[in-house]
Design goal:
6-stranded antiparallel β-barrel; elongated; 20 strands; about 400 residues; FAD/NAD(P)-binding domain; 7-stranded mixed beta sheet; alpha+beta; 2 domains
Length: about 400
């Protein structure tokens, strides 16, 4: 079997690559080891599929941090606004939430996958499901991709197999092995956007309890970190959107030889002075209540309970609370300390940090600098972004660029 472009992997980046390759009229084949396309896409954003985020290209570049420079060209070639327009042209309406995240109006990842597959069908993209590529050989006139007894001859190959996160969806590092066999360096894969494990074991006491808005700060070596958003206590640490973004910032330092100290501001909308004034007023108003019941107004019941126990104030009436004790409560609410030892395993992470070294890929084409005719897109590359649609935008932008470049 022969083709102009062979795309390995039918996830978000693979489907986008296929569409942009096939738009030129080039014969395009997608090989996917699963029985269906877009398995991970169905789980993205809790199943709602956070397509992208509002903001300019420069906003995105800043959000990607050290990966922004590599992604710059692909983002200008296929911007977040272009993503919204692209899906609108496919008949998929979108909506933007207050936090700037863009979702399909139906809030179903299956709608996104089906829109992409429908476009692939219109462009005569051919799919081969249930076949994994075992190896790829470079030949004078292109590549030979081996899938069992079948050999696919392709002029260009685009690897879009994802990373190691959510292995149940087929992301098991296949692309890393293929890239390495063709001469590429693989940056050690790590968990990014993952819950964090704390040294403190008592987090299991309020496990399952969430805080709607927190600010978490940390300093690692000379790097200052600050993230905001919801969080949740877990059996062995903390999770939730703010913590996932924190884990991305700490990914290169975990697991930590020395625990990383973080501070949680549970009430970021109120400074310490305002909070103390608020507490004084409540203590005077409800002088006969125990302090833990007064704190229910500002934090969930379980959180208030363990904060008071940590401070030794579980049964203390409001009218017996000393000034120093009140200030200790304020300190715990505004600068609650925890020590991070590690992230949860990579198979529980939303995104993989690591993969094909970005400095071995031409960012203006997504083509290998080592093996001409070989392209990469999506999570298989050592790039990642924060929560909120940024990682799918990497798939859309790099996928579109790889697809176009491969068939020029």
């Amino acid at each position: 079997m022969e083709t102009k472009a062979c795309i390995v992997g039918a996830g978000a980046a693979g489907l986008m690559s296929a569409i942009f390759a096939a738009q030129s009229g080039a014969k395009t084949i997608v090989i996917e080891k699963n029985a269906a396309a877009g398995e991970k896409l169905l789980l993205t954003g809790g199943g709602r599929c956070n397509l992208t985020h509002t903001g300019t290209v420069e906003d995105f570049i800043r959000a990607y941090g050290k990966f922004g420079r590599f992604l710059r060209h692909s983002l200008y070639e296929f911007s977040p606004q272009a993503t919204v327009e692209f899906f609108s042209d496919l008949g998929l309406a979108t909506k933007t939430e207050e936090n700037g995240v863009v979702f399909p109006t139906g809030e179903r990842g299956s709608d996104v996958r089906d829109a992409l597959l429908s476009q692939c069908q219109k462009l005569n993209v051919e799919f081969i499901f249930g076949r994994g590529i075992e190896r790829i050989e470079k030949r004078d006139n292109g590549f030979a991709a081996f899938a069992g007894r079948e050999i696919l001859a392709a002029q260009k190959v685009i690897i879009t197999t994802g990373g190691l996160s959510y292995p149940q969806t087929g992301s098991t590092g296949d692309g890393f092995k293929l890239a390495k066999s063709l001469g590429h360096t693989i940056v050690e894969p790590k968990a990014a956007l993952a819950p964090l494990i704390t040294v403190e074991k008592w987090t299991n006491e309020p496990a399952g309890t969430s805080l709607n808005s927190v600010k978490i700060t940390a300093q690692v070596e000379d790097k200052k970190v600050c993230v905001k958003g919801p969080m949740i206590f877990t059996q062995d640490g903390i999770g939730g959107p703010a913590v996932l973004d924190l884990s991305r910032e700490l990914a290169d330092y975990l697991p930590a030889k020395k625990p990383i100290e973080i501070f949680i501001d549970m009430l970021p909308s109120m400074n310490e002075t305002k909070l103390e004034e608020y507490l004084v007023d409540r203590l005077l108003q409800y002088s006969r209540k125990i302090i833990v019941n007064i704190l229910f107004d500002v934090v969930p019941k379980k959180v208030a309970g363990f904060l008071c126990r940590l401070a030794g104030l579980a049964e203390t009436p409001a009218n017996q609370l000393k000034k120093e004790q009140r200030r200790e409560i304020v300190w715990l609410l505004k600068k609650f300390p925890l020590s991070i030892s590690a992230a949860r395993p990579i198979d529980e992470a939303i995104i993989t940090r690591g993969g094909v070294a970005a400095n071995e890929i031409d960012p203006k084409m997504m083509q290998s600098k080592i093996c001409p005719g070989l392209f990469f897109a999506g999570e298989v590359i050592d790039v990642d972004g924060p929560c909120g649609g940024y990682n799918l935008q990497i798939c859309w932008s790099t996928g579109a660029l790889a697809g176009k470049s491969a068939v020029k």
